[in-house]
């Protein structure tokens, strides 16, 4: 059975098109995360699924039913917002019960659902409190509890953790992961700016840019095999190093000449027609290792050392003008500003993109 099907979904505000034909097949019980730069249309897409924005073109199906013209309350969807939107004068219990009272559920059913949601979210001891007597994380859990009580088929989250401090974000993220396990049949769609949330929560991540999909895939698939430069740069932090290059030999393996003159051979097959073409060579900061021999990938001069304890970031000048490469080295290496360093990387971890930005590996 299909959880959710988006077919050529378009959205425009007046003459301005913001969503340009989204096709997406989301299975029941899947946890889908939308990521992308500010303004790419994540919230608009989520709000169209919720029924809070009109769909300009295309068809949307929930459990096989076309819902384009179905009002929000009839879609079997619950949404959790960034601002918790709790009623300040109502207790936690009443906040969670509110929607069910409006829907004229029986007292017993309301009590059963509120207590079960409170149990899942560890809110049982707070049911009599007012929101003002709760921490930000607890308030967000009440907002999630209120959504659970509606027993939705689809659960939508619009950046639910972005108002929380770092420690609470982690704790609440883990609550959401547990919730996803406990509500295994409920489809969840989650919008975030946070890479860690996307990587840890998602079954599949949808990377959006300027109103279209760049790539859909499991988190590690996107990390290891980005389909294009946009995804390569977007997933991973610090971002993948990209070095302009020219293809100098093709075949089972491909050799490129990097800006700066060094040649590198990659285990990526290319056609003879690619010879001489411009390409972008990519390597992630964490995939660079200090080279012990003459067999190095590139060398340069360290301009900045950022020691974070667990890892150290080295900014290395000398390959592409005004664009330092970043190497992420475990621990605290004995390296200082001004040192000359050489790096290498595992061949399987090297990336190559054509002049249009498409990966040669895909
Ligand atoms: N009511 C509106 N009228 C006109 N344009 C709008 C309206 N709402 C959103 N937009 C535009 O639609 C585009 C997508 O906005 P949306 O809020 O969906 O992006 P987003 O990816 O969620 O961004 P952010 O990460 O900053 O929240 C933006 O260019 C925005 O300016």
- Gyration radius (Cα, Å) is 25 Å
What's the overall geometry? Answer: elongated
What ligands can be seen in this structure?
adenosine-5'-triphosphate
What topology, given as strand order, has the largest sheet?
Answer: 6-7-8-3-9-10
CATH class of the largest domain: Alpha Beta
Order of helices and strands: EEEHEEEHHHEHEHEEHHEEEEEEEEEE
What is the CATH superfamily of the largest domain? P-loop containing nucleotide triphosphate hydrolases
Count helical runs: 8
**Helix and strand composition category:** alpha+beta
The residue ranges in which pLDDT falls below 50 over 5 or more consecutive positions are none
Quaternary structure annotation: single chain
- What's the mean pLDDT score? 93
Question: Which structural traits does this protein have?
Answer:
single chain, 362 residues, binds adenosine-5'-triphosphate, five-stranded antiparallel sheet, six-stranded mixed sheet, 2 domains, Rossmann fold, OB fold (Dihydrolipoamide Acetyltransferase, E2P), alpha+beta
Protein model, in words:
The protein folds into two domains: 2-233, P-loop containing nucleotide triphosphate hydrolases (Rossmann fold, 3-Layer(aba) Sandwich), CATH 3.40.50.300; 234-353, Nucleic acid-binding proteins (OB fold (Dihydrolipoamide Acetyltransferase, E2P)), CATH 2.40.50. The longest helix is centred in the middle third of the chain and has 17 residues, at 166-182. Helix 2 packs across helix 3, helix 2 (92-102) packs parallel to helix 4 (136-149) and helix 3 packs across helix 4 (136-149). The chain is 23% helix and 34% strand. The strands form four sheets. Strands 6-7-8-3-9-10 form a six-stranded mixed beta sheet, with helices on both faces. Strands 13-12-11-14-20 form a five-stranded antiparallel beta sheet. It has a five-stranded antiparallel beta sheet with strand order 15-19-16-17-18, with no helix packed on it. The two termini are 29 Å apart. It is elongated and about 75 Å long. It contains eight helices and 20 strands. With 362 residues, it is of the alpha+beta class. Bound molecules: adenosine-5'-triphosphate. It is found in: Cell inner membrane. One of its GO terms (molecular function) is ATP hydrolysis activity. It comes from Sinorhizobium mexicanum.
């Amino acid at each position: 059975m299909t959880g959710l099907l988006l077919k050529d979904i378009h959205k425009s505000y007046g003459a301005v098109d913001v969503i340009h034909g989204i096709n997406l097949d989301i299975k029941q019980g899947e946890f889908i995360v939308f990521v992308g730069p500010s303004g790419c249309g994540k919230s608009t897409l989520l709000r169209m699924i919720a029924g809070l924005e009109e769909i300009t073109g295309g068809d949307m199906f929930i459990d096989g039913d076309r819902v384009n013209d179905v009002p929000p309350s009839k879609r079997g969807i619950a949404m959790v917002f960034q601002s918790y939107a709790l009623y300040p004068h109502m207790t936690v219990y009443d906040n969670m019960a509110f929607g069910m009272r409006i829907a004229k559920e029986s007292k017993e059913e309301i009590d059963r659902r509120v207590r079960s949601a409170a149990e899942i979210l560890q809110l049982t001891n707070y049911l009599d409190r007012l929101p003002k007597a709760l921490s930000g994380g607890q308030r967000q859990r009440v907002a999630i509890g209120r959504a659970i009580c509606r027993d939705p088929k689809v659960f939508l989250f619009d950046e639910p953790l972005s108002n929380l401090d770092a420690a609470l974000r982690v704790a609440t993220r883990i609550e959401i992961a547990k919730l996803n396990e406990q509500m295994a049949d409920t489809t969840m769609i989650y919008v975030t700016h946070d890479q860690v949330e996307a990587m840890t929560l998602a079954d599949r991540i949808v990377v959006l840019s300027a109103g279209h999909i760049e790539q859909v895939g499991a988190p590690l698939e996107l990390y290891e095999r980005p389909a294009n430069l946009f995804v390569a740069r977007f997933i991973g932090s610090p971002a993948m190093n990209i070095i302009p290059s020219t293809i100098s030999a093709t075949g089972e393996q491909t050799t490129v000449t990097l800006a700066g003159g060094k040649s590198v051979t990659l285990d990526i097959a290319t056609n003879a027609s690619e010879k001489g073409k411009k390409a972008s060579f990519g390597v992630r900061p964490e995939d660079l290792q200090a080279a012990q021999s003459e067999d190095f990938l590139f060398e340069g001069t360290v301009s900045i050392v950022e020691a974070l304890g667990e890892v150290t970031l080295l900014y290395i000048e000398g390959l592409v003008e005004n664009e330092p490469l970043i190497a992420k080295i475990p621990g605290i290496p004995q390296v200082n500003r001004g040192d000359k360093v050489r790096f290498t990387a595992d061949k399987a971890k090297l990336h190559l993109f054509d002049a249009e930005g498409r990966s040669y590996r895909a």
